[in-house]
Amino acid sequence: MLSIEAQDLVKTFDGFTAVENLSFNVEEGEIFGLLGPNGAGKTTTIRMLSALISPTSGSAAVGGYDVRDDALKVREIIGVLTESPSLYGRLTALENMEFFAKAYGVTDKAARDSKIHELLEFFQLWERRHDQVGQYSKGMKQKLAIARALIHSPEILYLDEPTSGLDPKSSHDIRDLMEELTKDERQTILLCTHRLEDAEKLCDRVMIINKGRPITISSPRDLRRRFSGQEVQVGFTALDEDLVELVQGLPSVINITASSEENSISVSLREEQDTPSLVKALVESGASLRYVRPLETSLEDAYLELMEGGQ
Questions:
Q1: Fewest C-beta atoms under 10 Å: which of 19, 96, 176, 206?
Q2: Helix and strand tally (H, E) in the chain?
Q3: Extents of the domains making up the chain
């Protein structure tokens, strides 16, 4: 079942095109990453999918509801964490949570109190529940903003930089929470982040956009494979200069890096299918191989290559 369907979304502001022909689907229970540099159109896309602004053209449905015709329904079933959390600094954490719970229609007091307690405990804010939010650190405000977005148990969650300002332990907790929500609660998460480590660990698929246009939609694993198939690492029982010279002289080899400490070489090949010929040449030379493995690039490296190449 699809939680989000977007088709040829376009948004212009006074002649400036912020989003141009974005099309993508997000499955129920999926963590879908929206990646791109500042000004790429990520926030504008989120605002359209939140039914806060209407597309100039194209269409989108969230939870089966059209973002134009059923805007109120869309807002009822989503939770949103914006890049700048909207909290009331003069209110306490408890008062903020109660206010937003009522605004989202959580009318049962017992259920509301239980949910607030559960979320503030999880985010380690319960002991500070009576403190004014204006006194909170940036990380504490971020935690409270995520708790606020979850107060009505939304079907679909939009998270814009959810680990921004958090310490490593809190960031880890947020990643665990996202995985738990999608696995156990079948919540769908649309994640906007500059932290590609988060996207790599969490996202089932990512869409990379630049200047409002889509570059690619893929799983992090497939993206890494796309840009790492031409480099391998070879380990030896013993590595000497003759072996290094042999590999350097092969026509399929572009460059090598040797490590005498690890008895290994990293080899850049012209084509991915050149690996068998490399192994054959080493075996025929009498080299004692321990392993041959592809060097898989990171999602960050793949992202940077896509940005630089404009693919």
A1: 176
A2: 11, 14
A3: 2-224, 229-295
> Mean pLDDT throughout 200-216?
93
Handedness of CA 117, 118, 121, 122 (dihedral sign): negative
- The rounded distance, in Å, linking the Cα atoms of 45 and 50 is 9
- Tell me the CATH class for 229-295: alpha beta
**272 has a pLDDT exceeding 80:** no
Tell me the CB-side half-sphere exposure of residue 25, using CA atoms within 13 A: 5
- Measured in degrees and rounded to the nearest 5, phi and psi for residue 304 equal -65, -40
CATH number of 2-224: 3.40.50.300
Q: Do 295 and 232 touch, CB atoms closer than 8 A?
A: yes
131: left (phi over 0), alpha (psi -120 to 50) or beta: beta
Cα–Cα distances in angstroms (integers) from residue 283 to residues 42, 93, 242, 259, 290, in the given order: 51, 67, 14, 19, 11
53 Cβ contact list (under 8 Å, min separation 6): 11, 44, 47
The closest alpha carbon to 235, from 257, 274, 273, 262, belongs to 262
Mean pLDDT of 54-60: 97
pLDDT of residue 91: 97
Q: What is the pLDDT of residue 229?
A: 58
Q: In whole angstroms, how far apart are CA 249 and each of 246, 254, 288?
A: 5, 10, 19
Is the pTM value of this prediction over 0.85?
no
C-beta neighbour count of 147 within 10 angstroms: 23
The answer to whether 10 and 56 are in contact (CB under 8 A) is: yes
Q: Answer whether 281's CB lies under 8 Å from 245's CB.
A: no
Residue type at 18? A
DSSP E strands in the chain: the ranges are 2-13, 16-27, 31-35, 57-62, 65-66, 78-81, 156-160, 188-192, 205-210, 213-218, 231-236, 253-259, 264-269, 289-294
Query: For the packed helices 93-103 and 138-150, what is the interaxial angle rounded to 10 degrees?
Result: 30
